[in-house]
Write a structure and sequence with these properties.
Blueprint: H1 2-6, E1 10-13, H2 16-23, E2 28-31
Parallel strand pairs: 1-2
Length: about 30
């Protein structure tokens, strides 16, 4: 997550806690 935030990358994940974190606006994530 830290690397994705630092380099403005999008995470691809099924992890619901990461998706919730992304929904709060802290990082970009794509559910798979």
């Amino acid at each position: 997550i830290a690397t994705a935030r630092a380099f403005d990358l999008t995470l691809v994940t099924r992890d619901q806690s990461i998706l919730d974190y992304a929904r709060a606006g802290h990082v970009r994530a794509l559910a798979c």
